Amino acid sequence: MCALHYKLKIIKHIPLLLLTLVSLSSCFEYIEEVTYIDSQSGKCQLTLNCSQSKNKLNTLLKLDTFMGIKVPNRGLIESELSRFQAKLKTCEGIGEVKLSKDFHNYIFSLEFKFDSTHHLNNAIWQCASEMGAYTEKSNPDILHYEAGIFSKIYPWADSIPNNRATKKTLKMFSDATCMSIYRFPNKIKSADNSDTKISPSRKAAMLKCTVKELLANPKQLNNTIYIEP
After folding, report:
1. Most confident of 90-94, 153-157, 207-211
2. pLDDT surpasses 80 at 176
């Protein structure tokens, strides 16, 4: 399997459609923001920022293929983004789906509201499956929020670092970063992950790491956050 193909497979934990663009660009920022209005409902925003690689992407997108992979044109990217948005709109408990596309800077953002954490988990899995980023039969919860305790756990965290091909891809993502931001209506008491940055208001928590670090240790972004009643 060529390196580019493996890169497509290894980043399946990123719930965003533009996997090919990510594969062509080793420098990008992925931001996941979840803002709770109450103990269950809220809004989610997913942003992929490849602006630091826009010159490289402008060149590569003029090609038909690169390293054996067919390079998508803008029309195909537009089509896939629309399909992703349409799929989200069909998910139960998901509403007000908004898509932002900036092809000049290669910044893409998807925002939607969810009725509960259960609906948010279900939407993530359905869209990942629709885009071919995840093909397993079981869909364990990634996010959980109950009784003032919020947690995020990657269910495949133990399998990625043990894959021999992972080590070959680490250098490719040396400049890419992942960020998770979670906001709550009540103050945060504490968080289990020692790398958590809590805002001065104590109503938001952030974790950030490089994709290289995340591939080496997918538990980097696992966290349990305790919220005041």
Report:
1. 90-94
2. yes
Q: Where are the domains of the chain?
A: 3-227
**In angstroms, how far is CA 59 from the centroid of its own chain?**
25
3-state secondary structure the chain: CCHHHHHHHHCCCCCCCCHHHHHHCCCCEEEEEEEECCCCCEEEEEEEECHHHHHHHHHHCCCCEECCEECCCHHHHHHHHHHHHHHHHHCCCEEEEEEEEECCCCEEEEEEEECCHHHHHHHHHHHHHHCCCCCCCCCCCCEEEECCEEEECCCCCCCCCCCHHHHHHHHHHCCCEEEEEEECCCCEEEECCCCCEECCCCCEEEEEEEHHHHHHCHHHHCEEEEECC
Higher pLDDT, 159 or 109: 109
